[in-house]
Structures are given as C-alpha cells and as structure tokens.
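User: Some background: our group keeps a shared notebook of sequences we're curious about, and every so often someone picks one and asks for a predicted structure to add to the entry. Today it's my turn. The entry only has the sequence so far, pasted here. Could you supply the structure so I can complete it?
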Amino acid sequence: MNNVLKYFFKSIAYIFHPLLLPTYGALLLFWANPYAFAHIKGGGLGIVPLIFILTFFFPVFALFLMKKLNFVDDYYLANQKQRFMPYIAILIFYIWAYLVIRKQYLPPVMNWMMLGSCLAISFAFIVNTFLKISIHALGAACLAAVAIAAHGFALHPFNSILVIVLLASGLVGSCRLYLKAHVTEEVYAGYMVGFVGMMVANWFV
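Assistant: Of course. Here's the predicted structure to add to the notebook entry:
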C-alpha cells in the first residue's frame, strides 16, 4: 500500500511540475473564453506551444546543462544552496515569456498570469536564502489563482474545473509532505509566496 501511495504522489509531483503550470494556466484561460483569443493566429492554442517552450523546455535544458557542469547535484534541487542559479535561469526565461506574451495583444489576464509567475519566482529567490521553499506549492498556488481568474473570465460553466484545480493544488502540497521533500512550513511558504506574487501582479496589469 505504501508503495502504491508513493508512486501516486510521485506521479502527482511530475504531472504538476512547477514548470508545466504556466502551460496549464494558458490552457485554462483558453478553455474559459476561447473567443478572447480569436484574433491570434491559430487561436488561443497557438500561443500555448510558445509558453511551453519558454517556461518549460528552455528552463529544463538550462537545468540539464547545470547538472552536466556540476552546478547542481540533482534535478530535484534538494540542496537549498544550489537553488539560486536555477532560480535565476528560470526567472530569465519567464521574464522573456512575459515580454513576448505582452506583445501578442492577448487578454490582460494572460499578461497577469505571466507577470505573477515572474514575481512569485523572484520572491521565492529571496525566501530561499533562509527557507527551502516548496516550488511545487508555489506553482500550485499560482495555478489556483489563474483558475479563480478564469472562472470570472469564463463564457460557460467553469465550476467543476475550478473545484478540480483547487483540489489538485491542495493535493500537490500533500504529496510534497508525504514524499518528505519538504516540511510543513516550506509548503505553506510556497502557497503564500505564490498567491502574493499573483496578487501583486494584479496591481500592475
């Protein structure tokens, strides 16, 4: 039974990998209101591959290079002190994504999602100096905030999707605790920093 639970929670950690969550957020916004993206070439779905490349592929490749060059011991970034360089690399790619997205004349909520993600990562970089913050929880909080925004943005019933995303966001924190990847305060800090990043972004968009 313990092996089944461990496999289940590891699967959740991979499915809701923090670097995948901007892509999920973009899909949520498109699903909520596809007409808002109708003026974009290829529709709203046309922007999703771009977000995936800038917020997942490039950061993962950068982490791969850091591992090969022995800047980090593993891909899980278990060592708190080794997280600073990956944070900087990820933040650079996320800022790049934000600047690219902003030029696409997309709905403001998409700009807000990317700016909030940038701010959350920036805050996490600072918090990491004294606490190994859970980036999974941070990403889950950002995705939950996007789902809440999408609910108000939606042209059709969105309640079920909102509930699923909120439950999944809570499950992500539970999985990090079960796998002993973090302690409780690190998970709570991740949720708080994620929400704060999204709230602060709301003042600028």
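Suggested note for the entry: The two ends are 47 Å apart (CA to CA). The mean pLDDT is 92.
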